[in-house]
Design goal:
The protein is built from 14 helices and 28 strands. The chain is of the alpha+beta class and 603 residues long. InterPro entries: ASTRA_WD_repeat, F-box-like_dom_sf, WD40/YVTN_repeat-like_dom_sf, WD40_PAC1, WD40_repeat_CS, WD40_repeat_dom_sf, WD40_rpt.
């Protein structure tokens, strides 16, 4: 590998020395450059003549294609997945076949997840290795270190708040000092005449004058206070010493205050508040020091983070219970709140905030539902919202959020699913899973009593329904056969569930993740994972190359979906997180702080 110039050119009979050197010269490249797409020993695809046949690993040739196929595949496994999928097929047919080799993708996945992790967790039959590897690489590039950056930003914000608090206290001290000076000036103007034997310190130090006067009166009466140690009378000299000590204590306190001000200024300079506040660069500059400014300007700027965070404007007046990204590309976001409203947000506008499009059902308070909005589901232009008012309302996103229908349940609606067009599933507090046809006036098709307690989470496809209940069971129901296939008893109850590609992931009330496999109606528990959540797992999303979880413990975690999950990032929130939604690489969370926060690739 280190001498790629040992090629066919050295074996040709009758070739002169100059001809050999001419053939070997283009191949004299360092081995560490062999992994670059543009330096694979071949010209770029755009420069290949259209009449030239595509080389193959078995054909006579030089450079990369003269190596054994296994070695070519291993080299290609170190290229970005996006390059293997989109670029190599344009170079030549042989390199395009690298993207069809499942062994190469498995090697790549093993390198990404680590040698001790198992991936995928579920069945391997029909698993989409290229998409999984591409998604994992993008996830690692975006989220690795994001938690540390968020922590640093939070720490800097706390420092700025501390500086503001110190400055506020300093302003209060200055105001009090000015008031004290004003009182002293008033005393000076109306100062009474006293005997010459009274020390003026009594007018300057609070409380000292009164002590001196009392002492004079006691001396005239012949009664002297006794000292504790020697029971001797306290002389006037000792009183003066105490006055001096009091004055010195006040000076020491002033020095401490001055030191506190200096420390506050130093903290303020470190966080850069003085340099940026209100455009007063000329005032703050000299205080920061020219040398420090030169050091900062000469330092290479750090690259911007791969993600940007959007905090949607305050559109709710109570906790946001659910959030859902719709539209297919993460451009629209729906949020349901305890203020009984569903808001629809446009995330396509630039800037750090989204734009409120509609409050579904009208404008004003309590316009969407008459109870807490607890869950959302969508398929195509249809959006469904479930509420504690025992109703499911249907909305048409293609018609500016116009109301499309109303379904009346018999208890609070806790979870929803839309596995097919016009088929709606609802899990309710009265222990039932109901199937509705959204096209007809009487939408109820079937009501299933599958549990002995409230139904908390629900997922489904065209044939199977999987429901989790507070009775600590998971039920698998076959819609086509019309019967229950399995009922699993767990040691905890599930609150969130995600079903895709024969894998089911769920989060329970103890903060534990559960992984199951689902094949041909057979539901099999695989593993349980402790990823660091310490309370209810309120939201979970799994795809072939990503795993997102959120919890009431105020954290959001991003993982690679292997066994055990490899956690890339932990985001700490100010309040409990009630749910999440992921679409096209965009993450949205529902917060107990009456807001929705969104993370997406920086544009």
């Amino acid at each position: 590998m280190s001498e790629p110039r040992v090629t066919v050119g050295q074996d040709e009979a009758g070739a002169g020395r100059g001809e050999k050197e001419a053939k070997s010269a283009p191949l004299k490249q360092p081995s560490n450059e062999a992994s670059r797409p543009g330096q694979l020993g071949l010209p770029p695809g755009s420069q290949l003549p259209s009449t030239e046949p595509s080389p193959s690993p078995s054909a006579e040739g030089s450079g990369l294609l003269s190596l054994p196929w296994e070695m070519v595949a291993r080299i290609a496994s170190h290229l970005p997945a996006q390059c293997v999928i989109t670029v190599l097929p344009q170079v030549c047919h042989a390199l395009g076949n690298v993207g069809k080799d499942s062994t190469a993708w498995q090697l790549r996945a093993r390198r990404l997840t680590g040698p001790r992790a198992s991936f995928p967790v579920g069945p391997r039959d029909g698993f989409d290795w290229p998409s999984a590897c591409l998604e994992m690489e993008e996830l690692i590039a975006c989220w690795t270190g994001q938690g540390e950056r968020a922590a640093r930003e939070a720490e800097q914000a706390e420092r700025e708040r501390e500086v503001e608090r110190v400055q506020e206290r300093e302003r209060d001290r200055e105001a009090l000092a000015e008031e004290g000076i004003g009182e002293w000036e008033e005393v000076e103007e109306g100062r009474p005449q006293v005997d010459e034997g009274v020390d003026e310190v009594g007018f300057q130090v609070e409380g000292v004058m009164a002590v001196a006067w009392d002492r004079e009166e006691l001396m005239e009466e012949g009664e002297m206070p006794q000292d504790r140690e020697g029971d001797l009378p306290m002389g006037v000299g000792e009183g003066e010493e105490r006055q001096e000590a009091a004055a010195e204590a006040m000076m020491e306190e002033e020095r401490d205050d001055e030191q506190g001000v200096l420390e506050a200024i130093e903290v303020e300079e470190r966080v850069g508040v003085l340099a940026d506040r209100d455009g007063q660069d000329n005032i703050a500059g000299p205080r920061l020091g020219s040398e420090g400014e030169r050091n900062r300007s000469s330092r290479a700027p750090s690259p911007p983070p791969a993600l940007e965070r959007l905090s949607l404007p305050s559109g709710h007046i109570a906790e946001v219970n659910s959030v859902l990204l719709v539209g297919g590309d993460g451009a629209l976001c729906a949020s349901g709140s305890r203020d009984r409203n569903v808001n629809l947000w446009d995330l396509r506008d630039g800037g750090s905030t989204g734009r409120l499009l509609h409050t579904l059902g009208g404008q004003g308070l309590f316009s969407t539902h008459k109870g807490w909005v607890w869950c959302l589901a969508a398929r195509g232009p249809l959006l469904a919202s479930g509420s504690f008012d025992s109703t499911v309302r249907l909305w048409d996103l293609g018609a500016q959020g116009a109301e499309r229908g109303l379904i009346r349940a018999r208890a609070a609606v806790l979870c929803l699913a839309l596995p097919q067009k016009d088929v709606l599933l609802a899990g309710t507090y009265d222990k039932k899973v109901s199937v509705y046809d959204t096209r007809v006036a009487e939408p109820l098709v079937k009501s299933l009593r599958l549990h002995s307690n409230a139904v908390l989470c629900l997922v489904a496809d065209e044939q199977y329904i999987l429901s989790g209940s507070k009775d600590r069971t998971v039920v698998i129901y076959d819609r086509r056969a019309g019967k229950t296939l399995q009922k699993l008893q767990l040691g905890s109850y599930l609150l969130s569930m995600c079903y895709s590609d024969s894998e089911v992931w769920a989060g329970d009330n103890r903060g534990i993740l559960h992984a199951f496999s689902m094949q041909a109606g057979f539901f099999k528990p695989l593993s349980q994972f402790d990823v660091g959540h310490t309370s209810l797992v309120t939201g979970i999303h799994r795809s072939p190359g990503s795993l997102y979880t959120c919890s009431a413990d105020r954290t959001i975690k991003v993982h690679l979906p292997c066994a055990p999950p490899r956690t890339l990032c932990t985001l700490h929130h100010q309040a409990g997180v009630n749910g999440l939604s992921v679409e096209a690489g965009v993450l949205a969370i529902a917060s107990g702080e009456m807001c929705v926060e969104v993370w997406r690739a920086r544009r």
